[in-house]
Amino acid sequence: MSRRPAQLRASRPWARVIQSSAFVRKELVEILRQPRLLALLVVGPFALLLLFGAGYRNEDLRMRTLFVGPSDSFYEDAVADHQEDLERFVEPQGFTDDIDAARARLDDGDVDAVVVFPADPLDTVLAGEQAEIEVLHDKIDPIQQTAIEVAARLAVQEVNAQVVAAVVASGQDALRPVDDVLAALTAAGGQVAAAAAAGDPTAAADAADTVSTTAAELRELVAGTDVVLTRLGAADDGARRTVLDRLDELRADAAAIAAEGGGDLTERAETLAARLDDVATAMPDVAAIDPTVIVQPFQAVTESTVPERIEPIDFFAPSAIALLLQHIAVTFAALSLVRDRELGLFELLRVGPLTSWEIVSGKTIAYLLVGMLVGVGLLEGAVHLLGVPLVGAAAWALVAFALVLLASLALGTIISLLSGTETQAVQWAMLTLLAGLFFSGFVLSLDGMTFPVKAIAYVLPVTYGIRILQDVMLRGAVPATEDLLGVGALVLAYGAIAILLLRRQLRTA
């Protein structure tokens, strides 16, 4: 009989299952009894995703672009003639010949990119080198930097394609350097003379056909050079015209020998040799360009005005610091008053001598000190462990920390006063974190957002924190006034709302 109670007990594995199921049932019932929590868990994240998908438009990321080059040049005409095509990819901001003014507009944020055409590409091309079209920008997002470089290459390829179209209709890529073509032409002429001396009309005809083909290649190269140089502003060159005429005559003589038309073969070979001598004599006076330069007279070179080279980890580090500070502050403040209310502390606060302002201030100061310590630790870790640059003054970074923490603590206090339980407060804090990821510019630029969805970004402290820290750490610039005023306005607005809500709840506690 003494063993019967022990026999009624479940075995140890089953005991664990039963005890665990009790907690599972408790948690499920707790969630079902809180429809607001269930809505936050299920509907909240999907609502944010839907808003993000509805508000982001990648095709709206055209950059405001200013073009710089000599006044009254073919560059200005080309920009004007292709205005509609340019508007598909950029927002043209005009054409100027003042590079300093263009850089000033770039520094002031009036334009996103400056395209600088070479002042005198003629000398560069004549030297057998490609002229550089420089693209200036101040983007620190590695994705945007890559996009600018790709866009610059595509644009220059389009310019090169137009030049090529003006040079030849087809076969331009098969051309050889001038010296090689001239050497091949001379060798073929020597074969014609040798065949004529040997009295072999068939061999002379074959060699003359080679002369005709090679002369055509040389003529196309010289003609292409003439078109490119004329398009780049060179004056008409009589030497090139003379060579072109001599090559036409040479091709006619070679064609006659190849066709074995009347006349003495030896005499024709001598005439052909004289034409070859004329061409060889005149060629040194002709500025013939390498075919590679003819096909692509321009190349793109991008230059960032940012003082440091920005790697992906450098770009995201300030954003991560700002987002973590917001999340920590919101979570701390969101849990604070909920716990006070659940513990019955509101009754004591109601009859106590403290005002709503004093309560909020006291809690804010405590959490602000903790948050600042966390922010300094994150900044030190980013700079010294990850090698993230801190180009600007560290004092401005501390100002950014303080403003983001104050605004986030005020927002967290509002969440705490609107939440019924700690679980709800935590879920609201998580939704704030997700909103910061999607709408603050953490992942994608705010330039891709459209209103009214874009307005969400301006009610999040992290949005201003990211921009301020990026300016200070990566650009070495003083934070923009609008960013400081924006986050300051959030501190005042959220703080006032938090105090009013707390005062109302203390009255009804």
Topology:
Elements: H1 4-8, H2 12-32, H3 35-55, E1 63-68, H4 74-81, H5 83-86, E2 90-96, H6 99-108, E3 113-116, H7 121-126, E4 131-137, H8 142-167, H9 178-197, H10 201-231, H11 238-258, H12 265-282, H13 291-295, E5 298-304, H14 312-342, H15 345-351, H16 356-385, H17 394-418, H18 422-439, H19 461-475, H20 481-508
Helix pairs in contact: 3-18, 8-10, 9-10, 9-12, 10-11, 11-12, 14-16, 14-17, 14-18, 14-19, 16-17, 17-18, 17-19, 17-20, 19-20
Task: Tell the overall outline.
Answer: rod-shaped
CA(first)-CA(last) distance: 58 Å
How many helices? The count is 20
| Helical residue percent band | 55-70%
Strand order of the largest sheet: 2-1-3-4-5
Question: How would you describe this structure to a colleague?
Answer:
The chain is of the alpha/beta class and 509 residues long. It has 3 domains: 58-171 and 296-304, abc type-2 transporter like domain (abc type-2 transporter like fold, 3-Layer(aba) Sandwich); 178-289, Four Helix Bundle (Hemerythrin (Met), subunit A), CATH 1.20.120; 312-508, no CATH class. It is built from 20 helices and 5 strands. It has helices at residues 4-8, 12-32, 35-55, 74-81, 83-86, 99-108, 121-126, 142-167, 178-197, 201-231, 238-258, 265-282, 291-295, 312-342, 345-351, 356-385, 394-418, 422-439, 461-475, 481-508; strands spanning 63-68, 90-96, 113-116, 131-137, 298-304. A 5-stranded mixed sheet has the order 2-1-3-4-5, sandwiched between helices. Helix 3 (35-55) runs parallel beside helix 18 (422-439) and helix 19 runs antiparallel to helix 20. The radius of gyration is 38 Å and the shape is rod-shaped.
